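ok so i was messing around last nite and threw this chain in just to see what happens. nothing serious, just curious
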Amino acid sequence: MTDTQQGRSASRELVLSLRGVSKNFGAVSALTDIDLDVHAGEVVALVGDNGAGKSTLIKILAGVHQPTSGTIKFRGDTVTLPDPSAALGLGIATVFQDLALCENLDVVANIFLGKEMNPWRLDEVSMEIKAWKLLNELSARIPSVREPIASLSGGQRQTVAIARSLLLDPKLIMLDEPTAALGVAQTAEVLDLIERVRDRGLGVIMISHNMEDVRAVADRIVVLRLGKNNGIFDPDASNQELVSAITGADNNSVSRRASRRSAQREQSPETLI
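result:
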């Protein structure tokens, strides 16, 4: 991290702090002594290869799994997360990769699913007004809140899922592969949305395999490898550094390509743009 980034993070509220968090499934160690800090108004990208422990860590913070050991502090208080409702109650919202939307229901019904206003006699007008307000605050491109989810694009569906997570005014939102399987325009729309969530003062944890998406919005990049911390980088870190941290291999196609380009520059700098 640069000195500017460190100073900016230090001036913000520390929303989440993990120290020594481990998770075992029988004899299998999925996470070992994980440390992680997330500040308000900050996007922290969580990257790593398949099996690195990213999803396990997110599920611990969402209350799906309980850690075997370690300490979780949320807004300065040591907390336990026995179930997802406890995480939501504290202010930790999660948008999983499958989004968990009901395609046959409209946008309003999906945003308020399970949290309806006056469930005995639905207050459709109030729910529609609040849905529009949430979506407008996110500058969302949704044609109508009465459109069924099935008719929306992938980016619009991601927008609805994020809007639903903001309904209870969380302090931390976790996004699991928010741009997976999206086109270029839809990816740009979702990345803009993540920036707007950060600008609302929320802490954001974003899991992604796409390094360009990570660089576009992340303030810090945390690398997990084989269930352990393996470095913290700023968005300007080279692909070679990130790939080496993710794979544990210094000699790979990225490093070899960088070496070849460096050698070519030294030999004929005038031929390279």
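not much to say yet. The chain is about 35% helix and 25% strand.
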